[in-house]
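Known limitations

Structure tokens in this collection are predictions and should be treated as such. Users comparing against experimental data should check residue numbering before alignment. To illustrate the layout, the record for Arylamine N-acetyltransferase is reproduced below. The input appears on top and the generated tokens appear beneath it.
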Amino acid sequence: MYTLTRDEVRAYLKRIGISEIGAPTLLYLAELHKAHVKHLSWQTLDIFGGKPAPIGFKESVALILNRRSGYCFHLNGAFGVLLHSLGYRVNLHRAGVQPMGAEPRINSFHLGLTVDFSDEEAGRGTWIAEVGLGDMPFEPLPLRHGTFIQEPYTYKVTESGVAADGWRLEHDHLASFPGVDYAPDVLTDLEEFKPNHEFYIRSEDSPWFNKFLIRQRNETEGNELRGCIWRKRNASGLEKTELHTKSQWFEVLAGVFDEQLVNYSKPEREELWKRVEAAHSDWQKIKERQEKAGSLPTG
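Generated tokens:
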């Protein structure tokens, strides 16, 4: 795995709001994990915007250092590099996200991470590090069966039903997908995932090819911007806001998701908004037709 220089480590930590390099302990892992999830949103921005980034370790780290972000391959890949460079024992795993209405699967459309601690170290055993799903755990989870509450969501770690000796991370029943399954075999590179990344960024059958979606969570709430609909979930429930103007949309992107669109010129930003607004208008028309017919679209 690619190893960062000391200066790169410090720049990465600064990007996620951490000032000091710490020892590779469980306590520091938790601090890193929380900061990463809070400051780096999961997003389809560059796919939607026609500027998809490669998923190589160096390229994913470069995204982070240049105040950009990405989706699972970028986020978990870059975080794995950071942890490795800080002295953690990091493992890469094949994984698969289960969409609503589908069966569990491990199809290498998701990259999983675990971190090993020896029996002599604080933390002991193996921990799940999952910063690549937007609304998944805020803190690392022990790789053992159990239920874990991290508001506003509840997660479960169970045995995988699709991989011998694998594990499953079940999402909250109110969340956008049921869960993720992970294979136990450890990979040494990202070659397994590159064809799937190409599908995500090039194919019109990709779920992300024409969808603007960005997710972020923090200590108490989860946020999602899907087109022009901003959803915020906390202990009080779900709050849904429709963003009607360009200024509102850009303000939420920057203020809630810390997305400054640094890789987009002013004309490109205008084009992004026009495409999002047009897609939202189309969705509203479909919604109105289905409401008249007695059914509502999902999403």
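For this record: The two ends are 38 Å apart (CA to CA). The longest strand covers residues 89-98. Please report discrepancies through the issue tracker.
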